[in-house]
């Protein structure tokens, strides 16, 4: 059952359109992330859901009931929405103990008997793993413990939804990683919808059932983390989530099995696409570094490109290779080491099923230019194109 619905939400600040008519839904026990760079509208969206901002258009509904509806002018204030929100800055009171911080929302609400208040505070401190810390002050806690206090305070009201505004960004790397899994476990036990705002792609991919990638106030793509990563629909998504090599080319025609042949300065590559492609149209390919296999001997099969090794960097579970086909740079990640010194020759085999044609990315001018280049395909194998590394 869908619990939280954002329907054509719009928010303006003067002439700036911060959120541009976006829509999505969150199921009762679902954890979703709004992911994007600064200024993309993700935090403004969260603040509209929380009630800290009044939408200029659209509606927000919880369990079928509106909490905001711009068309009718209805707006329920934040203290009446019963949402729990965890902020980036913790926002815990330094002069209050842990127990007092967590109990504070109940005291403000009023009408909660003392025995029930103490029981609810104790229960939430148990959930976040802070039993035994009740009488400590925030200055006596680590950053991770302060964040747990903020989470317990959000939970003590027994919220109907949980909202997170980059709550882990102030923690060190290892603590941030551990807290990711703890937040997921807590939300799963509660069985309430959660909306998580972050610019950290790894955080969004690990924690979310659904990732919503935002750009300039709009949703660029949404779906399961695996789907968004493996099947990006735009250069922005392929660039923002993970690393990609981008190569421009021209569609030559179908290559069988639903694949397409694309002429590029790397040679003719067999690629996949989510939509039919017209021969002669310009195309931009996105190739993930881990989708390229480096070998000393030339392998059989399509999409094999001779390259020169420029640099290799060891990163523990894998190594990162910077290679070049002529002057064309490619970035490769591989777990199996390739024993070739810089300057040596290798063969890069690109997986056709993961060499993706991005829809609607190349301009007509690029199509014309690449069509001219394609007439000299034999000479183009190592010419420098408009290629970028993300």
Summarize the structure.
With 390 residues, the protein is α+β, with helices and mostly antiparallel strands. The protein contains ten helices and 22 strands.
Rg, Cα atoms, Å: 26 Å
Helix content: 25-40%
Please provide the count of β strands: 22
What top-tier CATH class of the largest domain fits best? Alpha Beta
Task: Pick out the low-confidence regions.
Answer: 363-390
Provide the structure class.
alpha+beta
Shape: elongated
| Percentage of residues in strands | 35-45%
Q: In the CATH hierarchy, what is the architecture of the largest domain at level 2?
A: 3-Layer(aba) Sandwich
- State the major sheet: 6 strands, mixed
Number of helices: 10
What does this molecule look like?
It is a single chain. This protein is α+β, with helices and mostly antiparallel strands and 390 residues long. It contains ten helices and 22 strands. The protein folds into two domains: 2-235, P-loop containing nucleotide triphosphate hydrolases (Rossmann fold), CATH 3.40.50.300; 243-389, RNA polymerase II/Efflux pump adaptor protein, barrel-sandwich hybrid domain (OB fold (Dihydrolipoamide Acetyltransferase, E2P)). The two termini are 39 Å apart. The relative contact order is 0.12. The strands form four sheets. The chain has a six-stranded mixed β-sheet, sandwiched between helices. Strands 12, 13, 14, 15, 21 and 22 form a six-stranded antiparallel β-sheet that branches. The chain has a five-stranded antiparallel β-sheet with strand order 2-1-4-5-6, covered by helices on one side. The radius of gyration is 26 Å and the shape is elongated.
